[in-house]
Write a structure and sequence with these properties.
Shape: globular
Largest sheet: 5 strands, antiparallel
Radius of gyration: 17 Å
CATH topology: Alpha-Beta Plaits
Low-confidence stretches: none
Helix content: 25-40%
Strand content: 15-25%
Length: 170
Amino acid sequence: MRVNRTTVDLSEYPDLVVVYLGMRVRRPRGILRLLGLGPKLYKSHKDQPEGLLLHEDVVWALFPPHWGARQYWRDLDSLERWTRSAPHRDWWQKFLRDSGGTGFWHEAYFLRGGIDAMYDDMETATGLARFAPVVASRGRRFSTRGRVHNETAKVAPVIDESDYYGTESD
C-alpha cells in the first residue's frame, strides 16, 4: 500500500513567517524564570494576536530545560506589531535588563526569502549559530527587519539600540 502523500498550498500566505524560539535554563534561578514566563506566553498566544496563524509548543531538551515554540505568522508586520505591544514588550524589556538565568533565541524563516537569527545570553550555540559565524547585533543587525530586509523597523523597537548599548550604533 502506498503512503498518502500531501503538501500545502501557501498561495494565500505570500508573506508567511515561521518562527522557532526557545528559552534555555542556564542557571538554577532560570527555572523560576522559565516557569514564571511559560504560563504568560501560553495565555498570550491563546488570545490569538492578529496575524498569528498557529502556535505549537516545543520541548527542545529536558536537561537543561530548554522549551520553546514554533509559530506561523501571516506577515512580518503583524509579528512586529505584536512583539512591540504589551504584554510581550514588557516581558522582553524585563528580559533584556536581566535574563534571569536563562538564554533566549529565535530563528525566523520568510516565505519570500531570508532567514533571521537572534541569540541572547545563550552560552551553548543553538541552531544556525552552531555552524555560521556569530556577529554582534549592532546597526542594521539590531532588528529582524534590518537583518533580513535591510530596512528600518516599521514599529518602534522594544528598546532603542543606543539605550541598550549606551552608545550610538556602529
